[in-house]
Structure formats: structure tokens, C-alpha cells
């Protein structure tokens, strides 16, 4: 009999903290049958309740006897048990895996030349291709092999700067539906990231900490925006949200479909995780909290832009149909796994081991990287739910190792306000995968001196802010401008690692125009236009300055405000004998000028002075002549002024007949020319 059975109700409501995987996949949750025998050194009470023997708690633990006083100690039990709710994949370092996948296709009607592509062949090229020229009513397929897998560090020679300037795996899809809320959250998470590797890992940690695993969504597919709003789902929702957040700040990220081992069900099941590009593809399992280094039970089948792509693709001819008989793919997998440790020197320092309640202490993890490349190691911290809270860092976290150097990661803990009647002891456990574990026993006594949060804040800065703004292009709506104001058009991109609140200033001729542009998120591009009023006429060297509190960028551009030229056009001395004759007067402040007369059947370029329009350019009866004066200023901008002259030429009968015939022939000729151009 388990001596702790009277605590079953309490423990079942407080210890259900196992990390859930995808449908049927669960990391080993803490339960009564998993708890090792109690060790009094992990927990003991130094200040006892009134009339309680000093050895009372140890005796109770040994004998499994409940009494009224044990209820006084229930928080101590929770501290002890929850300190063990610490799951990490140390036992899955190296695995020998017997892999088998199979399926059955049902054929109805006339089907021929059936081609089946199954992306479930990790032993070969990833895809098993089958061809059935004349398929039977049932067609079976299978593939099997033996895999030897080990945890593999991701090595990167030169991590990409952040944000990167890449164009692949950034698109919005049905399930990776980025929006401004997601981009804003992602921008705040990655602020200060030194490179794309750090930025991607920060997003992964945030998704793990802020999305709750909920098995009710095991057989539905939800988008990233839905997951962000509801903060729950299974591995596909975790992964889609990560992809959306990463892509929204310019980090290429892709969806991985595969299998992984379930401790709870003692079998392999379908699973999803992500990879992001930081110079190399870096794996992150958002459900397990494994960042940069996955346990050896992860079997990758294929990657895609999102989780909508299926594992099987089929093509066939004929009028029949093809369907799955039972599950589309049946997996049968067995494995033998062992721990795997890496011989990198590491140590953990806890700055204070004797604490008060409502107190803070700092834990620093240091790892030496002897290689000449960057890599990432996962870090796991015990959860002591009723005693401690982690205020800086994550329970599933990471440490980035720079080449040939010591690398540190800091975790700040807050001791909660506990019952002053007791002194507490608990064990802090830190595991750096795959290096090993560290344990430190700490004690809490409310009579000790506290250390405030303000003491630690200067030690917790992460990364360096590198704000940067890029003006992608600019143009003026018109230049020179002849109106009261001009419009400056340009695009901005936040090319740094900090969210910026921007303002714009345009300066020319001693005058300034300012405008607040609001926030620009990391990686975000925005089109902006600013109205520039005319303060004076002339040619100016203008400056556009885009600035935030700690960065500014400038461009210079020519700005011209000009006056339209004065123009004069007069028509005098009109005569209607033998056509139309008149005198034109045209003048203005022009660098170049043109005069045109548009008659019903012909258009003429003329010069100032006497103008003659032939009779066969007119129609019998009333005609309207349009006289246009074009004046080009020194910038080559054309201005025009037109006047109209109504005339009725004086002609005899023969001339009238010839004018009709001439008009018919010219109209027909123009129609033929138009028809030929259309062909």
C-alpha cells in the first residue's frame, strides 16, 4: 500500500503538470506511482507547531500516518512533490529504432495509372513512390527500416544578424495567418536580440510558456491567430503560432511533421514541431520545450510551409476513386534508448542559499563551448509551484554558446510569502541537456534579511538594442510643384531589433514640417506620405529626417515650387475667302513654345503672325477651329491656352461638292488606318 494514499485528492489537483504532447503524446506526468521514496533531507520543518514533537513530520512520512497536524504541513508536501515535476529528455539521448509504416488503399470504379507518394520514408529519400498501372480493389503498401538516432547539436558558423534580410518561408498561409497583434507581440519578445538565433529561441520560449496544451483540440486544426487569441491547442497550434510570430519579424520558419515517443502511452505517435533559419535550420519543439536540441525519439518525416500538407499524395486516371482503408498510415515502431551526455564543462552558481520569504535569489548557469562554432543547449528548471516563481528566464529555456568561450544564462527566482510558522527546505534542480544536472538545497526562514528586486535588475539585461530605420524609396508627387502644397511619398522599414516610435521632419528654406508616424514594429514596412506646404517659390535642397528617441536617418532631395508662366493668345483679322485667314498673336515666359490649329479634317502647327487654313481642311457649312498655344517653362513643364474660332467659308456649288467628296475620302482613309492598327 502506498503510505500517501490519503493525500490522493490533494495531489491529483495540484500535480497534474505533465507536459502534454500531441494526440496520445504526453511527457511523464507526476503521479503517486512515479514519486520516488521520500527523503527527509529534501524537506523538513525546523520550527514546529505547538505541542508537536520535532521529529513528528519525519515519523509521519516513514509510517504513512495522517493526523490533524499533517494538514498544517500540506504546503510542505506540495513544495517537495512539485520540486520533482521536472521532465526533460535525458533518457532519450541515443535510440535504436525499428521503424515500420504501412497503409491500404481502396479502389472503386475505373482507376488506372495510380501514382502514390508517401512522405513516410525516413530511411530513404523521405518519400516512398508507388505506381499501380491497373490497381486491384485493395492495394497495400509498406516500408520498414532500422534507425540509429542521437541528439545532434545544431552548429552555426556565423549566426545571421537580426532582423535578417531573407525572402523564403515568410509567406502568410491559411494556418500561418500573421496579423498586427501577432507581429506586435513578436516584436516585443525579440527586442534586443543580438542575432536571428537568439530571436527565434526567444519566440519559442514565449510560445511554450504562454500556450496551454489542451487535448480537446487533438482532432481539429486551428490557425495561428486563433491560437494567439485563445492560448490553447496541441502541437499543430503551438507550431503554427511560432511560425506566424517568427515570420512576422522576418525569420524564415517551417513546419515539421513526424513522430515522437509518448511516455504516458509507451508508444510513438504523430507529432509536429518547427525549424527556423538562423544560418542553419534550428529545431524547436514548442510542445516539449526542447529548443535547439531535440531528443532522439523525434523522427522527422517532412517539412512544409504549414500543417495543411498531407503525408500522402495520389494521382490517377479514369472515372473511379481512391480512398484510404482505415488510417491513412499505420505506424509500428519499437525502440531502445539510452542517456547521452556531452562533455562540455558547465557549472551552476546560486548566489544565496539561505533565504527569507518574499525574497529573491539569482541562479547563473555557465557552459564552456570548446568548439569553433555557435550552438544551443536546452536548460530545464524545477517547478516549485507553491514556494517559488521564476521571474526572469523560463522553466524550459536555452543557452546560446559562442565559440571557444564561457557562456552564461541567469535565472531570477522569487520566494513567495510563506507561512511564518515554519522554516522550509527544498532542492533546486537545473538540467543542462545533454551535459547533466545540478542540485542545490536551499532554506527559507522569514527572520532572515531580504534582498529586493531592485538589487538584481541591473544584472538581468538581455541583448543590446540596435535600432535601425531604412528608407526604402521616396518620391515627390510632382517636382516642380505649381500648387499650394506638394506630397512626399516614401516607404520605411524597421531594420533593427527594437520597436520604434517614429516622427518625420521635412526642412527647407528655414521652414520645418513635422509629423508623428507612430510605432513601427520590428521587420515592419510602412508606406507614408507627408504634405509639404509652399512657403516660397524657388529651388531648394530639402531634408527628410526620420527619427526615434535613439536613432535617426536622413535623405536630401531637390524641392521646387514654381509659378506657372503668364501667357497671351489673340486672334485678329479673320477673312473667309478661299479658306480661312487670320492673324495670331502669342507670347509668354516660355523656354519653348508651339502653336497648333485643329480644323475638322486636319491639324496644323503654325507660327505667330498670318495663318491660312486651306478650304479642303474644312467642311461645308459651319466649322470650329481650335487654336492652342503651348508654353514650356524652364523645367520643361507644358502649359496651354486654347481659343475657338467659328467660321463658315464662302464657297460656290462646285467647291461645296468637292469639299464633301474630300471629307468622305479622308474619313474613309482614317477608318482604314485605324482598322489596320487594330489588326
Topology:
Layout (H helix, E strand, L loop, with lengths): L7 H7 L41 H8 L4 H5 L1 H9 L11 E15 L3 E10 L4 E7 L5 E13 L29 H11 L5 H15 L1 E2 L10 H7 L1 E2 L1 H14 L4 E10 L4 E11 L3 E5 L4 E2 L7 E6 L7 E6 L3 E4 L5 E9 L7 E5 L3 E2 L3 E11 L5 E7 L6 E5 L3 E6 L3 E11 L8 E9 L3 E9 L8 H4 L12 E8 L8 E10 L5 E9 L2 E10 L4 E9 L4 E10 L4 E10 L5 E9 L4 E9 L3 E7 L4 E4 L2 E5 L9 E10 L5 E10 L5 H26 L1
Parallel strand pairs: 5-6, 16-23
Antiparallel strand pairs: 1-4, 1-13, 1-14, 2-3, 2-12, 7-8, 7-11, 8-9, 9-10, 15-17, 17-21, 18-20, 18-22, 19-21, 22-23, 24-25, 25-28, 26-27, 26-29, 29-30, 31-32, 32-35, 33-34, 33-36, 36-37
Helix pairs in contact: 5-8, 6-8, 7-8
Q: Any overview of this molecule?
A:
The protein is of the alpha+beta class and 679 residues long. Among the domains are: 5-86, no CATH class; 469-561, Sandwich (Immunoglobulin-like), CATH 2.60.40.10; 567-671, Immunoglobulin-like, CATH 2.60.40. It has 10 helices and 37 strands. Helix 5 (180-190) crosses helix 8 (235-248), helix 6 packs antiparallel against helix 8 (235-248) and helix 7 (224-230) crosses helix 8. The chain starts with 7 loop residues before the first helix and ends with a helix. Residues 1-88 have low confidence and may be disordered.
Helix content: 10-25%
**Which percent range describes the beta-strand content?**
35-45%
Mean pLDDT reading = 83
What form results from the Cα inertia axes?
elongated
Rg over C-alpha atoms, rounded to the nearest angstrom: 40 Å
Oligomer: single chain
Poorly predicted runs: 1-88
With strands numbered from the N-terminus, the spatial order across the biggest sheet is 10-9-8-7-11
**SS field, number of helical segments:** 10
CATH class label of the domain at 567-671? Mainly Beta
How far apart, in Å, are the first and last alpha carbons? 97 Å
Amino acid at each position: 500500500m502506498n503510505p500517501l494514499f490519503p493525500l490522493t485528492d490533494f495531489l491529483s489537483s495540484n500535480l497534474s503538470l505533465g507536459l502534454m504532447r500531441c494526440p496520445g503524446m504526453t511527457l511523464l506526468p507526476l503521479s503517486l506511482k512515479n514519486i520516488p521514496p521520500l527523503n527527509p533531507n529534501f524537506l523538513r520543518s525546523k520550527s514546529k507547531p505547538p505541542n508537536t514533537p520535532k521529529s513528528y513530520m519525519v515519523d509521519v512520512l516513514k509510517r504513512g500516518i495522517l493526523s490533524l497536524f499533517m494538514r498544517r504541513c500540506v504546503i510542505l508536501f506540495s513544495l517537495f512533490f512539485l520540486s520533482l515535476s521536472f521532465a526533460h529528455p535525458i533518457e532519450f539521448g541515443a535510440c535504436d529504432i525499428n521503424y515500420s509504416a504501412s497503409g491500404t488503399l481502396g479502389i472503386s470504379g475505373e482507376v488506372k495509372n495510380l501514382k502514390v507518394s508517401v512522405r513516410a520514408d525516413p530511411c530513404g529519400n523521405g518519400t516512398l513512390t508507388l505506381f499501380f498501372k491497373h490497381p486491384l480493389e485493395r492495394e497495400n503498401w509498406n516500408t520498414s527500416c532500422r534507425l540509429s538516432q542521437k541528439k545532434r547539436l545544431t552548429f552555426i558558423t556565423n549566426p545571421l544578424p537580426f532582423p535578417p534580410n531573407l525572402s523564403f518561408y515568410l509567406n502568410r498561409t491559411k494556418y500561418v495567418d500573421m496579423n498586427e497583434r501577432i507581429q506586435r507581440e513578436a516584436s516585443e519578445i525579440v527586442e534586443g536580440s543580438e542575432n536571428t538565433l537568439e530571436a527565434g529561441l526567444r519566440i519559442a520560449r514565449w510560445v511554450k510558456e504562454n500556450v496551454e496544451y489542451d487535448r480537446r483540440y487533438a482532432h481539429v486544426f486551428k490557425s495561428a491567430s486563433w491560437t494567439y487569441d485563445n492560448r490553447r491547442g496541441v502541437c499543430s497550434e503551438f507550431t503554427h503560432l511560432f511560425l506566424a510570430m517568427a515570420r512576422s519579424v522576418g525569420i524564415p520558419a517551417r513546419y515539421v511533421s513526424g513522430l515522437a515517443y509518448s511516455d504516458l502511452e509507451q508508444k510513438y505517435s504523430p507529432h509536429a514541431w518547427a525549424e527556423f533559419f538562423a544560418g542553419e535550420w534550428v529545431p524547436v519543439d514548442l510542445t516539449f520545450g526542447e529548443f535547439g536540441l531535440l531528443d532522439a525519439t523525434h523522427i522527422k518525416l517532412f517539412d512544409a510551409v504549414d500543417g495543411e500538407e498531407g503525408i500522402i499524395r495520389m494521382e490517377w486516371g479514369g472515372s473511379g476513386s481512391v480512398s484510404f482503408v482505415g488510417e491513412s498510415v499505420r505506424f509500428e515502431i519499437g525502440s531502445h534508448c539510452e542517456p547521452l551526455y556531452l562533455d562540455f564543462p558547465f557549472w551552476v552558481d546560486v548566489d544565496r542559499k539561505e533565504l527569507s520569504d518574499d525574497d529573491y535569489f539569482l541562479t547563473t548557469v555557465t557552459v564552456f563551448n570548446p568548439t569553433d562554432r555557435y550552438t544551443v543547449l536546452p536548460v530545464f528548471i524545477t517547478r516549485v509551484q507553491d514556494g517559488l516563481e521564476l521571474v526572469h528566464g523560463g522553466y524550459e529555456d536555452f543557452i546560446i554558446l559562442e565559440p571557444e568561450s564561457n557562456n552564461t544564462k541567469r535565472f531570477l527566482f522569487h520566494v513567495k510569502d510563506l507561512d511564518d510558522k515554519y522554516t522550509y527546505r527544498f532542492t533546486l534542480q537545473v538540467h543542462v541537456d545533454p551535459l547533466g544536472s545540478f542540485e542545490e538545497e536551499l532554506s527559507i526562514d522569514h527572520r532572515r534579511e531580504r534582498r529586493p528586486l531592485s538589487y538584481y535588475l541591473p544584472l538581468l539585461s538581455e541583448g543590446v538594442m540596435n535600432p535601425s530605420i531604412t528608407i526604402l524609396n521616396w518620391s515627390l508627387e510632382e517636382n516642380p510643384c505649381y500648387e499650394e502644397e506638394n506630397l512626399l511619398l516614401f516607404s520605411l522599414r524597421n531594420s533593427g531589433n527594437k520597436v520604434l516610435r517614429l516622427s518625420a521632419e521635412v526642412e527647407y528654406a528655414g521652414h520645418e514640417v513635422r509629423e508623428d508616424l507612430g510605432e513601427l514594429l520590428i521587420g515592419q514596412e510602412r508606406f507614408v506620405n507627408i504634405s509639404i506646404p509652399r512657403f516660397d517659390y524657388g529651388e531648394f535642397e530639402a531634408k527628410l529626417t526620420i527619427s526615434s528617441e535613439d536613432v535617426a536617418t536622413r535623405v536630401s532631395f531637390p524641392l521646387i515650387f514654381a509659378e506657372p508662366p503668364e501667357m497671351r493668345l489673340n486672334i485678329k483679322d479673320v477673312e473667309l475667302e478661299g479658306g480661312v485667314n487670320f492673324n495670331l498673336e502669342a507670347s509668354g515666359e516660355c523656354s519653348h513654345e508651339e502653336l497648333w490649329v485643329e480644323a475638322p479634317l486636319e491639324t496644323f502647327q503654325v507660327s505667330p503672325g498670318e495663318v491660312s487654313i486651306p478650304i479642303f481642311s474644312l467642311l461645308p457649312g459651319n466649322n470650329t477651329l481650335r487654336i492652342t498655344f503651348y508654353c514650356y517653362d524652364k523645367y520643361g513643364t507644358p502649359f496651354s491656352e486654347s481659343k475657338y474660332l467659328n467660321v463658315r467659308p464662302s464657297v460656290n456649288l462646285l467647291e461645296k461638292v468637292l469639299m464633301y467628296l474630300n471629307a468622305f475620302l479622308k474619313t474613309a482613309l482614317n477608318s482604314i488606318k485605324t482598322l489596320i492598327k487594330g489588326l
